[in-house]
Design a protein that fits this description.
With 220 residues, chain B is mainly alpha-helical. Chain B has nine helices and no strands. With 251 residues, chain C is of the alpha+beta class. Chain C has two domains: 111 residues, Beta-grasp domain (Ubiquitin-like (UB roll), Roll), CATH 3.10.20; 130 residues, Fumarate Reductase Iron-sulfur Protein, Chain B, domain 2 (Orthogonal Bundle). Helix content of chain C is 36%, strand content 14%. Chain C starts with a strand and ends with a helix. Chains A and C meet through helix 5, helix 7, helix 8, helix 14 and helix 15 of A and helix 1, helix 2 and helix 3 of C.
Chain lengths: 674, 220, 251
């Protein structure tokens, strides 16, 4: 310890050590979400008024590592750079502009009420809590709704070309789970435009020298010194070199872990490894079972398939979802004897409009997905596999004309046609649910700090503000809220007492050890020299996840899943084959390192799903449903965030509960019927 | 100096010299066509554009423009080839909508320049240059009409000139709208308009030249 | 009935930027025409791994045509023979049984090969860093509706902004010019009142960086536009030229 005392003033060191020790004692474990005092609408203002700040001269002396360059990571790195911190920003892609936020299509929510249709910060807050099936923190969600308006202002100032009306003002569209039009959009490429906005702000800081970029670098471990996050170990993906980076704080913005399922709407490179390494170093993993299944994806069509393509939720503004009313029609379609256009209007079952008259085709994603599964399970599914429903634009084309539909969704229709080879202007699209987003993630308090001091998590990587189900167009909102407007404040509250801590040397024993561990892990993988490719094992894991930890979960199924995942783990660690060498570019090694963590995450998801004996949002346990098939919560037993703590290799983690108190919202059964 | 060290600057020099040469060709063609109708009138123009000071200045300016255009062409091509890298594509397929001329401007330019040398020897050397230096005392520098008639009496020469005009047509149809594009006088709507205008304008110029060659080579 | 084809791939293999590369042939049979081009390469790689060989390295990520990571030059076209799409959206139904398909990396001095079909497009980031932004800090900006923007301008800015930075324009250009990429960004901002303030500075800085990084000069062949997966128009190049010339004349 003596060597570290030299670099930190004793009193601070001791204090810090003390609080960390306290946090580490299991008996003392009480989850403190650090919600500020005061009425809901004033909490964030109060927090900002009373938080500690870092003065400009000191900011220069503080280093912050941001892992990830998506909407959350990119905007955070840029904003922290603007404030004057010294930022090191990492991404696995060849450029920060390629983070998977770029693929978000539909839009971003904000409570601007430009349409004068009754929107407000409170309504956005309410819709988000309700959409999340009452499993999100009130204070966080309110803050999210509160800063949503600033995001739109910021993006417009950055030159994001949002869609406009002829009068020159911003246009809006509607998204699921809301009865107002509050979604701002840029064609079907909103995520791209917002990310490019953040990327341009980031590029400006790179030019100024406040942000240093590390593209094609993958974080493989978190370095902890005296209980605080102080750096990362990263692999240079081009040279294969293992590198050490030190900082005063580390921010994880690495997105979700949906690729555990192999087939998902995530990018091929999206992974949960950075988050999982933090979990292994002591950060709690919250609500891992909460994964969102998006209702409108292009159905699976072959074994060779590598990913699923999303068709934006915005399509549900004008598209109507249906299956045949008669089973024999569905069978005929599956056999290729009938075309969807042959089915008469009265023989079509617009099941969302039938079941949910108030919201119709714009019910939240979890509800729409389950309804599709219900119809397909009941034998009304279409497509060659029977695992698809129709999304039909014929009435919209009749009402608006093909040109208007083309202007609104042209790029999506083109994408569909390229993949499926069918013209969606003529034949209805076929869609089916697919894994899209993970609401679960690293647990954070109100300050977005994880349970490890100095480690922050933002964007999809944290367990976030979406509860058990995220509403459409809210991921972009949350990512940018965290990155532009929340973290740059809250991180200062942490850093304010770090100003006297000098820069860390990466020669400290903790760095040496962490690098050694990473090297050992890689060496172990390379030495297996088995018979199976990484992808083949990943596909096996994906099938287990989809079958047992997917849209409909049961106790028995989840127990089977746990056993099967253990078997996959064994197979992986004894039979994977990674060609090439570790000390150079090696794509298979990258994939293997990620898969090793996906297997663990899959296990954790199943464990959490098994623990949560209720249905809520995206988590649907078949044992818990209302007579008409809706999710049935058990508020008395499960109104909490499950926070999982790692206990070591091959040991089941321990779960702590962060209770959720609803002071301002009346908790109800979600109802999208009336 | 941005005309020397920026890529757009270099292209601006190409564009302005190019447009200037097109302007010159327009006058040249108008003048030539006169020969079809009246040898006398044509010779009057020749005399007017003989060794007078304004004609000499004009000649120097045109020559300067041409030399600059050619020098920049080689310079730009050198940079462009270097930018392409050392390894070449094995399979190359011209994308739809790309004009053949646009990808072969240097080759076309070289053909034009070689033709130009011949043309200068055939006419300018015997006219303006002769008038100043008196190098060919037997040739009347003001009898352009006679020179044309004599030259194109050989159909092979007439055909060679026609081929040359085709090369010029290709070079200019791309060159004209491309110059306007480089100067920034273009947008989504005018893109196709300029291309169309370019095509018509250059066809008129080249047909004008060709008419003279055909008339004297095959008709007169 | 699933239709399948047999193909021969002729793929560029190169260990590193300094090493010499060469084409290598691979025969693949029973490829479903419904699979995407990259899924076909996945199948090839799976076979190579099972044989103990090193898989073909290529960039790819989102596989839905928006991240701009995929970058193959297929049968003489960046992103392959289909129109308005990226390589990841190219499907095998565009090919016939018995086809020989040549797959090369982007070839341009500005994009050195890292390995096989993977190239380094870091130059694009450097160009954006030179000035591809509007200098506003987070916070303290006016209300989003404070400045009305004509729909036509907003739409044209959006069309320019749809560039995904894949580099197909450079790969297609016989001059290795990055003008379409640079002009798309300059155009997007030049069309919006927020971006007008720094328009002159931006055009000069980005162009100077492009020249410095060794990209070629635009000769208006239009190959970039023809091969651009997002249909970015060369009218943007005219706008960049205009902005640049105006800026220089004012200096």
């Amino acid at each position: 310890m003596a060597d570290k005392k030299d670099i930190t003033p004793e009193t601070k060191e001791v204090q810090a050590q003390k609080s960390v020790d306290e946090a580490a004692r299991p008996a003392m474990k009480k989850i403190d979400s650090k919600i500020p005092e005061g009425p809901l609408a004033e909490k964030w203002t109060n927090y900002k008024s009373h938080q500690k700040l870092v003065n400009p001269a000191n900011k220069r002396r503080l280093d912050i590592i941001v892992v990830g360059t998506g909407l959350a990571g990119g905007s955070a790195a840029a904003t922290l750079g603007e404030l004057g911190f010294n930022v090191l920003n990492f991404c696995i892609q060849d450029s920060p502009r390629r983070a998977h936020s770029i693929a978000a299509q539909g839009g971003i929510n904000a409570a601007k009420n430009y349409q004068n249709d009754g929107d407000s910060v409170y309504r956005l807050f309410y819709d988000t809590i309700k959409g999340g099936d009452y499993r999100a923190r009130e204070a966080n969600v309110y803050r999210l709704a509160e800063v949503s308006n600033s995001i739109i202002d910021q993006c417009v100032a950055q030159g994001v070309p949002f869609a406009r009306e002829y009068g020159g003002l911003l246009d809006n569209r509607s998204f699921g789970g809301a009865q107002v039009s509050r979604t701002f959009y840029a064609k079907g490429q909103t995520g791209q435009q917002l990310l490019l906005g953040a990327y341009s702000a980031l590029s400006r800081q790179v030019k100024k020298g406040t942000v240093k970029l590390f593209p094609r670098h993958e974080m493989l471990d978190l370095v902890i010194i005296d209980g605080r996050a102080r750096g990362i170990i990263a692999r240079n993906l081009v040279t294969g070199k293992i590198e050490r980076y030190a900082a005063h704080a580390v921010v994880i913005a690495t997105g979700g872990y949906g690729n555990t399922f192999f087939l998902s709407t995530n990018a091929m490179g999206s992974n949960g490894s950075a988050a999982f390494q933090c979990y292994k170093k002591g950060a709690y993993f919250a609500n891992p079972a909460f994964a969102q299944i998006h209702p409108t994806c292009i159905p699976v069509h072959g074994e060779f398939q590598s990913k699923l393509t999303l068709m934006s939720e915005s399509l549900r503004n004008d598209g109507r979802i249906w299956v045949p009313k008669k089973k024999e029609d569905a069978e005929a379609i599956r056999a290729g004897k009938l075309r969807p256009t042959d089915i008469k209007e009265e023989d079509r079952d617009y099941y969302l409009e039938r079941r949910y008259p108030a919201f119709g085709n714009l019910v939240p994603r979890d509800v729409a997905s389950r309804a599709a599964k219900e119809r397909c399970d009941a034998g009304y599914g279409v497509g060659s596999t029977g695992l698809a429903v129709y999304l039909d634009f014929s009435s919209a084309i009749e009402r608006l004309g093909e040109d208007v539909v083309r202007a609104r969704y042209g790029n999506l229709f083109q994408m569909y046609e390229k993949i499926v080879d069918e013209n969606p202007y003529k034949t209805p699209m076929m869609i089916y649910p697919a894994i899209h987003y993970t609401m679960g993630g690293i647990w954070v308090d109100y300050e977005l700090s994880t349970s490890i001091p100095g480690l922050f998590a933002i964007g999809e990587a944290n367990f976030s503000d979406h509860g058990a189900n995220r509403l459409g167009a809210s991921a972009l909102m949350q990512g940018l809220a965290d990155g532009y407007f929340v973290l740059p404040y809250t991180i200062q509250n942490y850093l304010s007492d770090q100003i006297t801590v000098p820069r860390f040397s990466t020669d400290l024993p903790e760095f040496v050890q962490a690098e050694k561990d990473v090297n050992a892990r890689i060496a172990k993988l390379m030495a297996i020299k088995g018979n199976r490719s990484v992808d083949s094992i990943h596909k096996e894991l994906g099938l287990i996840m989809w079958e047992f930890v997917g849209m409909g979960r049961t106790k028995e199924g989840l127990e089977i899943a746990l056993e099967k995942i253990k078997a996959v783990k064994k197979e992986f660690w004894s039979n994977v084959r990674i060609p090439g060498e570790a000390d150079t570019l090696n794509v298979e090694l990258e994939k293997a390192l990620r898969l090793a963590d996906f297997i663990e995450i899959g296990y954790l998801m199943a464990l959490d799903a098994l623990n949560r004996n209720e249905s809520c949002g995206g988590h649907f346990r078949e044992e818990f449903q209302t007579p008409d098939g809706e999710a049935l919560r058990q508020d008395d037993k499960y109104m909490y965030v499950s926070c999982w703590e790692y206990q070591g290799e091959d040991k089941d983690p321990v779960m702590y509960k962060e209770p959720l108190d609803y002071e301002y919202i009346k908790v109800q059964q979600r109802n999208y019927k009336q | 100096m941005w005309l020397l060290n920026s890529s757009i600057g270099k292209k601006v020099v190409m564009s302005i010299t190019g447009l200037f040469l097109i302007l010159f060709l327009t006058f040249h063609m108008s003048m030539n066509v006169v020969a079809i109708f009246s040898g006398e009138a044509y010779n009057m123009i020749c005399e007017f554009l003989g060794a007078n000071w304004y004609a000499l200045v004009g000649t120097l300016v045109i020559a300067g423009g041409a030399v600059l255009h050619i020098l920049y062409a080689f310079w730009l091509t050198y940079i462009n080839r270097r930018a392409r890298g050392n390894d070449r594509y094995k399979v190359v397929d011209k994308p739809q909508g790309v004009e053949w001329a646009s990808q072969n401007m240097l080759v076309l330019g070289i053909i034009i320049a070689l033709g130009l040398l011949l043309h200068l020897y055939d006419f300018w050397f015997k006219m303006q240059f002769n008038e100043i230096t008196g190098i060919l005392p037997d040739v009347n520098p003001h009898d352009g009409y006679g020179l044309i008639a004599e030259k194109f009496a050989n159909p092979a020469i007439a055909v060679a000139y026609l081929v040359w005009f085709v090369a010029i047509w290709f070079h200019l149809t791309h060159g004209f709208w491309s110059a306007l594009q480089t100067l920034g006088w273009n947008n989504k709507i005018w893109l196709s308009r300029w291309k169309c205008i370019s095509c018509i304008y250059m066809t008129v110029i080249c047909l004008g030249f060709a008419a003279v060659a055909i008339y004297f080579g095959f008709i007169a | 009935m699933e239709k399948t084809i047999n193909i021969t791939l002729r793929i560029w293999r190169q260990r590193g930027p300094k090493e010499k590369g060469a084409f290598k042939e691979y025969a693949l049979s029973n490829i479903s025409v419904d699979s995407s081009f990259l899924e076909m390469l996945d199948i090839l790689n799976e076979q190579l791994i099972n044989k103990g060989e090193e898989p073909v390295v290529f960039d790819h990520d989102c596989r839905e045509g928006i991240c701009g990571m995929c970058s193959l030059y297929i049968n003489g076209h960046p992103h392959g023979p289909d129109e308005d799409i990226t390589t990841c959206q190219l499907h095998m139904r565009k090919f016939n049984d018995g086809d020989v398909i040549t797959v090369e990396p982007w070839r341009s001095a500005g994009f050195p090969v890292i390995r096989d079909l993977m190239v380094d497009r870091g130059a694009f980031d450097k160009i954006i860093q030179a000035g591809g932004y509007i200098s506003v800090n987070t916070g303290g900006v006016p209300d989003a509706n404070a400045i009305p923007i004509p729909k036509a301008n907003a739409d044209e800015a959006m069309d320019a902004a749809s560039c995904i930075g894949c580099g197909a324009c450079v790969a297609a250009c016989k001059n290795g010019s990055a003008m379409l990429f640079v002009s798309a960004k300059v155009s997007q901002f030049a069309l919006l009142p927020q971006g007008r303030v720094e328009a002159a500075r931006r055009a000069k800085a980005m162009l100077a960086k492009m020249d410095e990084l060794g990209f070629g000069n635009c000769t208006n062949t239009g190959a970039c536009e023809a091969e651009c997966p997002k249909n970015v128009s060369i009218s943007n190049i005219a706008r960049l030229n205009r902005e640049f010339i105006k800026a220089k004349l004012k200096d």
